[in-house]
Amino acid sequence: MNQRLTEESKKLSELCNMVRRLTKQRNFSDCERVIAAAMSEYPHAPQPHNLMGVLFKIKDDPATAMKHFRAACSLDPSYTPVRHNLHNFASLYTVGAFVFDETDLGNF
């Protein structure tokens, strides 16, 4: 069971890196497709919903972004990247950048 969790963590980390790269390239259709597939593969993981929230925020759809951030938070309230995104984007004055995963938290 531990090996399965390690493999899942590795795949979700790779997903975050892929989404980061695709959003920089502004390849939103592929990005959304990859995230949706991850939601199906990892239905209880907060990472895909957090990433979808980031994608919709970039696409200037804050209402849909917040729905995904809240879904991610519901799946794992201790997942720090989504807590940061919720706090940041729910405020009147957005400060800072998007948090794709834990590696981005060192920048704040």
Tell me what the structure shows.
The model has no long low-confidence stretch (mean pLDDT 89). The longest helix is centred in the first third of the chain and has 23 residues, at 2-24. The radius of gyration is 13 Å and the shape is globular. It has helices at 2-24, 28-41, 46-58, 62-75, 80-90. Helix 3 (46-58) packs antiparallel against helix 4. The chain starts with a helix and ends in an 18-residue tail after the last helix. The protein has a single domain, classed as Serine Threonine Protein Phosphatase 5, Tetratricopeptide repeat (Alpha Horseshoe), CATH 1.25.40.10. Helices cover 69% and strands 0% of the residues. The protein has five helices and no strands. The protein has 108 residues and is mainly α.
Number of continuous helical runs:
5
**How is the CATH topology named?**
Serine Threonine Protein Phosphatase 5, Tetratricopeptide repeat
Strand content: under 5%
- Give the termini separation: 34 Å
The class by helix and strand makeup works out as mainly alpha
Helix content: 55-70%
What is the total number of structural domains? 1
Order of helices and strands: HHHHH
How large is the radius of gyration?
A: 13 Å
Q: From the coordinates shown, what is the CATH architecture?
A: Alpha Horseshoe
Low-confidence spans: none
- The pLDDT mean sits at 89
Instruction: Supply the CATH superfamily name.
Output: Tetratricopeptide repeat domain
